[in-house]
Amino acid sequence: MEPIPARRPLRRKLLFAALITAAAVVLAALAGEIVARARGIPAATIAVNFGQARLDNGPWDPHPSAEAHRLYARKLLAFLVEEGLVDG
Q1: What is the Cα–Cα distance from 57 to 62, expressed in whole angstroms?
Q2: I need a labelling partner for 33 at 20 to 30 A (CA). Which of 8, 19, 76, 82 fits?
Q3: pLDDT tens for the 88 residues of the chain, in order
Q4: One-character DSSP codes across 9-32
């Protein structure tokens, strides 16, 4: 029986594609924030550091975890309170 060929090049390509996609999303969000602020529209950066443990769903699912969503909510609430848009 022949050994199964290694899939590392495919995994590297998938990881690279995920990183490029994540970078594009972050840049788009920052650009939107810059445009909003230039027009006098309140804008917040609620990004979290995905280098921290437990903020994604593992190496093959880069979507935010429940913990990441809790951090997003805290940051968004702090922004809304700071801007006077909701009561703290």
Answers
A1: 6
A2: 19
A3: 666 655 567 777 777 777 788 778 778 878 888 888 899 888 888 888 777 778 888 777 878 889 989 999 999 999 999 999 898 7
A4: HHHHHHHHHHHHHHHHHHHHHHHH
Whole-angstrom Cα distance, residue 15 to residue 28?
20
Neighbours of 56 (CB within 10 A): 20
CA 21 vs. chain centroid, Å, equals 10
Q: Name residue 64's beta-bridge partners.
A: 56
Q: Report d(CA 70, CA 62) in Å as an integer.
A: 16
**Model confidence, pTM:** 0.61
